[in-house]
Amino acid sequence: MAKGNPLQEQLLKAGLVKKSKLAEVAREQNKARHGKGPAAQNEIQRDAERARAEKAERDRALEAERKAQARSAELRAQARQIVADRKVPRSGELEYRFTADGAIRTVLVNDDLKKKLVAGALVIARIDDRYELLPRVAADKVRERDAGMIVLDHGQPADTAASTSEDDDYY
Questions:
Q1: What contacts 80, CB < 8 A, 6 or more positions away?
Q2: How far is Cα 124 from Cα 152, in angstroms, rounded to an integer?
Q3: Does the CA dihedral 35-38-43-45 come out positive or negative?
Q4: Cα distance between residue 88 and residue 132, in whole Å
Q5: For residues 96 and 115, what is the distance between their CA atoms, to the nearest angstrom?
Q6: Over the stretch 7-27, which tens digit does the pLDDT of each residue have?
Q7: Residue ranges of E strands in the chain
Q8: pLDDT for 36-63, tens place per residue?
Q9: Cα angle: 72, vertex 77, 80; to 5 degrees
Q10: Whose CA, among 67, 69, 102, 148, lies 20 to 30 Å from 170?
Q11: In 3D, which of 146, 131, 124, 12 has the Cα closest to residue 77?
């Protein structure tokens, strides 16, 4: 015992403690100083690490959702810009009627625009509460970004073909 506690040395000289008991206490103190903490500390650390991991996962999910919303808003803005830049000026007195949202809508066109609409060279797109005519190329770009803006497109194959063939069999 080269480096003992002065109190322990006094107790040993006085005969109140045995040398083996002093050695045992010294080993326990040494273990306490250099050993690992109790198991409860490890459990707390694991809980803290688990909480950090869960928080990081939630943060990643929220960030992904924010990015998706920003991306969709950006695509809508691009589609609106394409419609604003590429719209065909309308002139004429002929009424061209079409359905949108279950209601019949009307736009005024001339004879040339009407023929192009029927042939599918022009498409009708909605911006807020108004309708604009677009050339097919611009309409395809708008459809890539926000398909909900395209209201009428005679150039696309209609989904009603299947129901018409069923009706034809009936009659």
A1: 127, 149
A2: 5
A3: negative
A4: 7
A5: 10
A6: 888 888 888 888 888 888 888
A7: 94-100, 103-109, 122-127, 130-135, 150-152
A8: 555 556 888 889 999 999 999 999 999 9
A9: 125
A10: 102
A11: 146
State the residue for tokens 């419609």.
83
83-109 tens-digit pLDDT = 999 999 988 888 999 998 889 999 999
Strands (E), 50-168: 94-100, 103-109, 122-127, 130-135, 150-152
Q: How many CB atoms lie within 10 A of CB 79?
A: 23
Name the strand (E) or helix (H) holding 80: helix 39-86
- CB 136 within 8 Å of CB 120: yes
Q: Token digits for 26?
A: 């010294």
Residue with tokens 């506690």: 5
Distance between start and end Cα atoms, the chain: 111
